[in-house]
Design goal:
elongated; mainly alpha; 56% helix
């Protein structure tokens, strides 16, 4: 249709009306241009190292009898 203009205000949706997959896609599409992939990769690597350190601590804790009381 010729002559249609975009809305003057941002389009508004009620999130309850959207399927979860569609909502996820919309959000990811909106934030993707602002994600620094190098920073994200470093943060993910840091979190994985922290998970490994916590798992090692818990394994040592359990082996030393520090688990939950019976």
């Amino acid at each position: 249709m010729a002559g249609l203009r975009p809305p003057l205000r941002p389009v508004q949706w009620e999130v309850e009306a959207l399927e979860p997959a569609e909502l996820r896609r919309l959000v990811l599409d909106a934030v993707d241009p602002y994600i620094d992939r190098d920073v994200l990769a470093r943060q993910i690597a840091r979190e994985e190292e922290q998970r490994r350190a916590l798992a090692a601590f818990l394994n040592g804790w359990d082996a030393a009898g520090g688990g939950a009381p019976a």
